[in-house]
Design brief:
With about 625 residues, this protein is of the alpha/beta class.
């Protein structure tokens, strides 16, 4: 492609204070001298003016001034978590369920480092969160003072940006800039570290603050020639696929995606991060691609002659062996982050822009192309429909007579419906929840996709319920994941956050065990957790739930499943925990082994295939 064919898109102007919420600027405007506020007061006032209504946090010595002032106001609800990691994941769940910025607060040193996992998780999955941490006195920095840690340095590789604030007058600008960076362009986490003396001292509160972010110019409007080229390629293609990633949800572009897909008649696949971006019930939808994707979705990408990637990043779990991924496909790559374009698979037509705007432009361009070109995807759809008929998603009943986890999760989705929110942990239960619950709307599926963080589910569900109190929110968790962050049930009980928790209890670290079965001759090294059938059942999840003030239920047979789910749905005065005791031998199918071509996708309904190597 020549330089003329691939022009550099025009960047948007650098964000300024004009980009802050107009209502906030109006609220702050007034006559007379600026109000004198402490740095802590400025933090709270700035958050309030930015429209923040809920924060998750845990106090400590370096944020006592902030917490002292938090209790003097009622505009912002503070939810006291039991672990800082819980605050971070709750902020993620809040953001992912509502498209708002989630906020987490922690103290210096170990409080701040406990946020790191959630920050890394948000960075991988492009979740807009604002993390505010206290720091030791500026005069003590660099002396290895008590609970000192260079959290700005620690988080630099896993944030969009990190700020260190040492003066109270710099607080509004830093918080407002962080909020802007987190929520614009490709969303992500931003950290603001504020010294204790900056929180204690006073300064005039000036709003809106001047925001100076040299070099930060997110591109949202794509170049027209690139869009036209993509539209023509689609009209000329015989085997096209829309490869939809989580960026479509972050861009709030689901309506535009639906309109474009219906206009063009192009097959759609939605990645793990994009479940719900396109309705599962739609005839154009082939399902989820990737390591545990549906056979039609996996093979559609593999055999396509044109892939239009929308807010997706060609990660290894989707591509399999990259050098053998979609060997005959021309690639159109649409992403708001130019760093993702051609990072893994070279794009023939790179389009840098916001998915919402690009899809609308593509629809216009494709309609224009239809005046001279008549697309024909008939043979392609005949082949894909054949795959759908031959390889439907299914599972076998466990030979040991125990509950099938797929059945449990399927019934949770069917009895709750598409208006619910489902937050999964990481592992087999995560894949089953992605496969067997039908997602009809965006922001209904929350999970840790890129980082694969065990412990994500319970606090993320908690955050989602705070953001969307009128929706049913399920944490679909594993017995391993649940034991990492279940202390947040205390937070839920005390703060009247009635989430539902379904523990898919196979008494093991299930996904690792599956790999050990398939690739390590069944040597189950240190993956038995002794929580389920035929074990010591330590802990007893029902007793644990009751200790936390939740309703605890145990289900061991299929005839108990519906009644337990219905009881959970009817219980809204406290959290509910259901211990579903399932078979440890159940596996996630289909599966593409790591490091091989997606052409080797295995559909195993009644037996496991044999592979020679991992």
């Amino acid at each position: 492609m020549t330089a003329e064919q691939n022009p550099v898109p025009s960047p948007t102007p650098s964000p300024t204070s004009a980009a802050l919420p107009s209502a906030a600027a109006t609220a702050a405007a007034g006559s007379g001298e600026p109000e004198l506020l402490t740095g802590s007061g400025a933090i709270i006032r700035t958050l309030e003016l930015l429209g923040v209504t809920d924060v998750f946090g845990l106090p400590g010595g370096a944020v006592i001034p902030l917490y002292d002032e938090l209790m003097t106001q009622d505009a912002i609800r503070h939810i006291l978590v039991r672990h800082e990691q819980g605050a971070g994941h709750a902020a993620e769940g809040y953001a992912s369920a509502s498209n708002r910025v989630g906020v987490a607060i922690a103290t210096s040193g170990p409080g701040a480092t406990n946020l790191v996992t959630a920050i890394a998780d948000a960075y991988m999955d492009s979740v807009p969160i604002l993390c505010i941490t206290g720091q030791v006195f500026s005069t003590l920095m660099g002396t290895d003072a008590f609970q000192e840690a260079d959290i700005v340095g620690i988080t630099m590789p896993i944030t969009k940006h990190s700020f260190l604030v040492k003066r109270p007058e710099d607080v509004p600008g830093a918080i407002a800039s962080a909020y802007l960076i987190a929520s614009t362009g490709r969303p992500g986490p931003v950290l603001v570290d504020i010294t204790k003396d900056a929180q204690q001292k006073t300064a005039p509160f000036i709003w809106p603050p001047k925001i100076d972010l040299p070099g930060y110019r997110p591109i949202t409007k794509a170049h027209g020639k690139q869009v036209q080229a993509a539209a023509q390629l689609l009209a000329d293609a015989k085997k096209p696929v829309l490869y939809v990633g989580g960026g479509v949800i972050r861009a709030r572009a689901s309506a535009e995606l639906l309109a474009f897909a219906e206009l063009t008649g192009t097959p759609v696949v939605t990645t793990l991060m994009a479940r719900g971006a396109f309705p599962d019930s739609h005839d154009l939808h082939l399902g989820m691609p990737g390591m545990h994707g549906t056979v039609p979705a996996v093979l559609a990408l593999q055999e396509a002659d044109l892939i239009i990637a929308l807010g997706a990043r060609f990660d290894d779990r989707v591509t399999g062996k990259v050098s053998e991924f979609a060997p005959n496909a021309t690639i159109v790559h649409v992403d708001v982050d130019p760093a993702e374009i051609s990072k893994i698979r070279t794009a023939d037509v790179p389009i840098v822009g916001d998915a919402k705007d690009v899809l609308a432009d593509l629809a216009v361009s494709f309609s224009a192309v239809l005046k001279t070109t008549t697309p024909d995807f008939t043979e392609w759809w005949t082949y894909l429909d054949g795959l759908r008929k031959e390889y439907p998603l299914g599972y076998s009943e466990p030979a040991d007579g125990l509950l099938a986890p797929q059945y449990v999760i399927k019934r949770i989705g069917e009895l709750t419906g598409p208006e619910g929110i489902y937050a999964a942990g990481v592992g087999q239960h995560q894949m089953w929840a992605a496969q067997y619950i039908k997602y009809e709307r965006p922001n209904s599926w929350l999970n840790s996709g890129g980082a694969g963080t065990m412990g994500y589910s319970v606090p993320a569900a908690m955050g989602a319920k705070v953001a969307e109190p009128d929706r049913v929110v399920w944490s679909i968790d594993g017995d391993g994941c649940f034991q990492m962050t279940n202390q947040e049930l205390a937070t839920c009980t005390i703060n009247n956050i009635p989430i539902k928790v379904a523990i898919i209890n196979n008494s093991s670290l299930g996904m690792v065990r599956q790999w050990q079965t398939l690739f390590y001759d069944g040597r189950h090294s240190f993956t038995d957790l002794n929580t389920g059938h035929g074990s010591a059942m330590v802990p007893d999840f029902v007793k644990l739930a009751e200790a936390y003030g939740a309703l605890g239920i145990r289900v061991t047979s299929a005839d108990q499943v519906d009644d337990a789910i219905k009881l959970a749905l009817a219980t809204n005065d406290r959290p509910v925990v259901i211990d579903f005791v399932v078979s440890r031998d159940a596996m996630v199918w289909p599966m593409v082994p790591q490091g091989v071509s997606n052409s080797y996708v295995q559909y195993a309904k009644d037996h496991a295939p044999t592979w020679g190597e991992e």
